[in-house]
Write a structure and sequence with these properties.
There is one protein chain. A hairpin with an 8-residue loop joins strand 10 and strand 11. This protein has three domains: 101 residues, no CATH class; 58 residues; 189 residues, 3-Layer(aba) Sandwich (Rossmann fold), CATH 3.40.50. Helices cover 46% and strands 18% of the residues. Helix 7 packs parallel to helix 8. About 6% of the residues have low confidence.
């Protein structure tokens, strides 16, 4: 298999280069944003790195079979527009818009994944492919990582399975650098939102305990979760144990007054009601309550949710201006792929992972090295 890398400004710039150098049968394996150039790490420009490949064995076989199949395929080819010939005079063709290119890219990736899932992969790489699938990494991440490992393997003919996993670790170390900065918001008022059952109130208590006991900051608590009486009492219990003030609000006016009373605190943490995230009326109520206040919004998700549900939740809370994400219940699942999938899809930092019910423990502040170690942990 012949694999080449291109660094371009837009996807549409890569297509004619790939067709010219690898031919019309080439497929795109992966795309990712990279930063190039600059001086001493400054003034670097963002570009798009595109990996493309040509399966020469497949092309040779198709050419051999072509004469035999030509007659039977003639009718079908007359009914289906020929895609291969059209782009040859690239300079004379209208520029393809990004939506069309992305659609073509998606189909190419699907083809490439099918190729990778059959017997074409070198034997030492197959356990890596199986591992990435079992950990539920997205197809985009799997194809990108495996493409890089295929390139690497060409230089090391006698490589082993352990070599392949070490290369995988190196690839994730590189990928994490392209994700958003992993740091907690520094705004004084931090509001926490999310669906039912993700452990918002317990997580807020853990953060409050860490700020108070480890960082020596004064903390105030606010809850608007009057929907459940037990939630108010739960947060009040934590506030009493930590010896910090707590306010209960039901309206924007209540919120403004509570913030004034807690103004002497270094940090104010606000809990909100956990409701059905598919009810948009709940989101609009939150928007009304929080409007006009300078605060950061943290979305809390549970790693025990299906990734498709996590995406729906994130999409519905997007209008609130979410700036960071906390994922809970890491101790209740061994699957790690969705953590990476989320950062890849939403370009939001995951700043904290929780690993149990103990307050203020069972809370991990993330770092790039931590995420890389996390990938290897389940191996």
């Amino acid at each position: 298999m012949k694999i080449k890398r291109y660094v371009v400004t837009h996807l549409r710039e890569a297509m004619p280069l790939i067709r010219q150098e690898l031919g019309q049968d080439a497929v795109i394996l992966d795309t990712k944003k990279v930063r190039v150039g600059g001086i001493f790490g400054l003034f670097r420009k963002q570009r798009l790195e595109v990996l493309a490949a040509l399966d020469e064995e497949k092309v040779a076989k198709e050419e051999t079979d072509f004469a035999t199949l030509l007659q039977s395929e003639k009718k079908r080819r007359e009914e289906v527009p020929e895609r291969i010939e059209q782009p040859r005079n690239v300079d004379k063709q209208p520029v393809e818009d990004d939506a069309q290119v992305l659609g073509e890219l998606k189909s190419m990736k699907e083809i490439m994944m099918q190729m990778m899932e059959n017997e074409r992969l070198p034997k030492p790489l197959k356990p890596v492919q199986t591992f990435l699938e079992a950990q539920e990494f997205s197809q985009t991440i799997r194809s990108g990582v495996m493409a890089e490992l295929l390139i690497k393997s060409k230089s090391y003919p006698g490589f082993t399975k352990d070599d392949a996993f070490e290369w995988m670790r190196q690839e994730f170390a590189k990928r994490i650098k392209n994700y958003p900065s992993i740091r907690s918001e520094s705004k004084k008022i931090r509001c926490f939102v999310g669906p039912t059952g993700v452990g918002k109130t317990t997580t807020i208590a853990k953060i409050a305990g860490n700020l108070l006991l480890k960082e020596r900051q004064s903390v105030g608590l606010i809850t608007s979760d009057t929907y459940r009486i037990a939630a108010v009492e739960q947060l009040r219990t934590y506030a009493d144990i930590l010896g910090i003030p707590m306010e209960v609000v039901q309206s924007p006016a209540d919120l403004g007054q509570s913030l004034d009373r807690l103004s002497a605190c270094d940090v104010i943490l606000m809990d909100t009601a956990g409701r059905n995230y598919q009810q948009y009326s709940y989101i609009t109520q939150l928007e009304s309550l929080l409007s006009g206040q300078e605060m950061s919004i943290t979305l809390i998700l549970s790693l025990t949710h299906r990734y498709s549900d996590m995406k729906l939740i994130a999409d519905n809370f997007h209008s609130l201006g979410v700036s960071e994400v906390i994922m809970t219940k890491m101790d209740e699942t061994t699957v790690r792929g969705p953590i990476y999938n989320f950062m890849e899809d939403y370009n939001l930092p995951i700043t904290i992972l929780t690993t149990g019910q103990n307050v203020p423990d069972d809370l991990v502040r993330t770092t790039p090295d931590f995420f890389v170690d996390l990938v290897m942990e389940e191996r």
